[in-house]
Design brief:
Helix content: over 70%
Strand content: under 5%
Distance between the termini: 37 Å
Radius of gyration: 20 Å
Structural class: mainly alpha
Number of strands: 0
Order of helices and strands: HHHHHHHHHHHHHH
Number of helices: 14
Length: 376
């Protein structure tokens, strides 16, 4: 295996950027594809949402395996899983096999995020934190692009999943192996009650994010938006989603992460109420900005609370993937009773409840708002 000291920074950068654009294609593509699968396999709306959960369970499973640090979990394997899974989904042989393809893509997705973030942080030296921020930002480029590709393909996801498969397999040749395996730690110490809310806030941040980009397009259609128009609105949502994440580069210098998380929840509540109250398209698109900031702010706040123990870092990643896995199942059960058009009211209620709890924690912990530009 290639020695890590011989890593080519340019090749690592190119592979990382292209890989994150690739995985960015998936979340929005799932969201705009659900109506297609509902028709193609005569599914109930809740059953179509299983596609999102299959992806989430795949990502959760690979993260749990990765805690042990087996060296065969590598970047090229993640691309192979994404490529094979996308090809299976594109072929659409049966709904069960489409779900199997989503599990494989989820495994590749989870493995990719863990490996690329770690390698960028370690192998770019002092520039590592900035490079991690950059590679995570370009994820939004893929998210903006996939609904546009979906529209160009005439509203069928098959061609886009074929493209994902081809790109994933082509990228295998670009990746340069690293001699540094996933660093796992045996065992995991228990969280204290004082620390556990950090994981709960992270869980709800990801749950709200998955609900909006995964089920939001279907909710728009239920509320009267044409299918291709919903795909275009989804692309607009991800433009603001990307803008929200990029804005944190500046906002985080002025405000503490806990207060930024609270502001993200407040914005999500307000814009989801707007969407639910009759201004569905603009409300959904504008919600992309606060929704895009939910995960990063919750993650940084949680990391500050939990400390540097890598086992607790793994617990944070697992909380995210658990939300991505079971969130759509829980929401599907609720929406089966209310109708998917009620999604925005439900997201607003969840964000409001989470926000009130977060406000209580901030006041109890006396977290500073930290007005004023920070150095760096």
């Amino acid at each position: 295996m290639t020695d890590p000291d011989t890593t080519n920074p340019t090749r690592l950068f190119a592979a990382g950027i292209l890989s994150f654009v690739l995985i960015g294609l998936l979340p929005a593509l799932y969201g705009v594809s659900l109506p297609h699968y509902t028709r193609a396999f005569a599914l109930a709306e809740a059953e179509a949402g299983w596609l999102l959960s299959a992806h989430g369970f795949g990502a959760l499973a690979i993260v749990l395996v990765g805690i042990a640090g087996p060296r065969w979990l590598n970047w090229r394997l993640s691309l192979s899983l994404i490529g094979g899974g996308a090809a299976l989904v594109a072929f659409e042989p049966a709904w069960s096999l489409v779900l199997a393809g989503a599990v494989a893509m989820g495994m590749g997705f989870g493995l990719m995020t863990a490996i690329v973030n770690r390698r960028f942080l370690q192998e770019f030296g002092s520039r590592g934190p900035a490079m991690v921020g950059l590679v995570n930002s370009v994820y939004g480029i893929g998210a903006v692009t996939s609904p546009i590709l979906f529209v160009w393909a005439g509203g069928s996801p098959r061609a886009v999943f074929v493209l994902v498969a081809v790109l994933a397999l082509a990228l295998i040749a670009v990746v340069q192996p690293s001699g540094r395996g996933l660093s796992g730690q045996a065992g995991a110490r228990l969280l204290s009650l004082r620390q556990s809310p950090a994981l709960i806030f992270l869980f709800f941040a990801v749950l709200l994010e998955v609900a909006m980009f995964g089920l939001g397009p279907s909710a728009l259609i239920e509320l009267g938006t044409q299918e291709l128009a919903a795909a275009k609105l989804t692309s607009g949502f991800f433009v603001l989603f990307l803008g929200g994440r990029l804005s944190l580069y500046w906002l985080s210098r002025w405000f503490g992460p806990g207060w930024l998380f609270l502001a993200s929840l407040a914005g999500t509540v307000g814009l989801c109420v707007l969407a639910a109250g009759g201004v569905a398209g603009p409300g959904f698109v504008l919600a992309g900005f606060p929704v895009g900031t939910l995960f990063p702010t919750a993650y940084v706040w949680g990391a500050n609370r939990l400390g540097p123990d890598p086992r607790l870092s793994s617990a944070m990643i697992a909380a995210c993937q658990l939300a991505a896995a079971i969130g759509p199942l829980i929401l599907g059960l609720v929406l089966a009773q209310t109708g998917i058009g009620a999604l925005f009211w439900i997201v607003a209620a969840l964000a409001l409840g989470t926000g009130l709890w977060a406000l209580g924690m901030l006041l109890r912990l006396r977290d500073p708002v930290r007005l004023g530009r920070q150095p760096g």
